[in-house]
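User: Could you check the structure of this?
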Amino acid sequence: MWLADRLANLVSGLGGPRDKSTGNLHVHVPRARSELDAAYRDNWLARKVVDIVPFDMLREWRAWQAPPEVAAALAASEERLALRDRLLRALRLARLHGGAALLIGDGAPDPSLPLDPEAVGQGGLLYLHVLPRGRIQAGAIERDPLSPWFGEPQVYTLAGGQAVHPSRVVRLLGAALPEDALGDGWGDSVLQALLEAIDQATAAAAHIAAMLPEAKQDVISVPGLSQHLSTEDGTRQVTERFAYAARMKGLFGMLLLEGDGRSPEGERYQQKQLDFSGLPEVARLFLQVAAGAADIPVTRLLGQSPAGLNATGESDIRNYHDHVAARQTVELTPAIARLDRLLIRDALGRDEPSLRYAWRPLAQASEREKAEIGRLKAETATMLAREGVVPAEILARGVEGWLSAADLFPGIAAAFGRPAA
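Assistant: Sure, the predicted structure tokens are below.
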């Protein structure tokens, strides 16, 4: 027996048989890959929704919290493997198709066997390949909670039929799915839930653009027009007459008509204009809905200044930066943790479990703000030195690290012998 529990109002009919919304039903209709690809290639808004978040997640990259020589070695390995570029491409494909993968190559003859991190020496990683969802098939999901691969595919299969162990794959997902829907090991395209709002926004702009040629129309009432058009010769005469009138209007800025415009024999001229006063707000509303659905501020999605009295958009951008930083920490960092361990061995030839990194902040301070922050930190360092709270050599090393990373004085990092941040 099913029991319905909902808000109902017997007076207004809300929730009752007269409420038309009670017939609403959500039905999942998967978007075909060809449709997703077409939207990405042909719709500017769909492309920006897919591209903006991965770009912002990797725009400032990360900084390893390590001694200068170790940080330099890690940066060299990242550059040699083109990690940043590969990761950006994979994240975009994951958002577009629901999933993508990075294939880790160490030269092993049989990629179906597990990749042992202990066997990776310095320079042991040969390549990172980006594989779209259509070129790598995920096997059955591991459902054993005691397995280290729980929640991941037990095996991957490349387009040529080669089996690949999951330890050699970095799996990146698009939009999250309900747990029971993870049948093929991937997620949803972010456009699956957003394409309707995107289509509405672009359609609103297209409809307004289509109205522009109709913004001003000349209307001439011709007595006996139907009679003239009833014969081929009359139709030709009317067409030639008003074609000539249009040319005269274009040349001389005037339109000559017969009669006074009031008598039955005279032609009457009118000009109709469309009112566009409320249409920009309508188009903006649909764009705001699409931006809200994509979780991207309008100021970032459209690249425009905020509208309204005293509007700066700072709070929107700050919230968006916090959102991107959270995704870096909660989603991206765990997804590439396996790769990072291999990257450390590739750069150093050994494990360093204590190594950590921090994602650089997206908000970039102005020169004035940098100078003000530098003044406050210099005053703090002076006070600590004067009070003797921190040993001088430790404080000096901390100030050295701050000056090298603060970008206040170009070239000071090289003078200290540190890699630039």
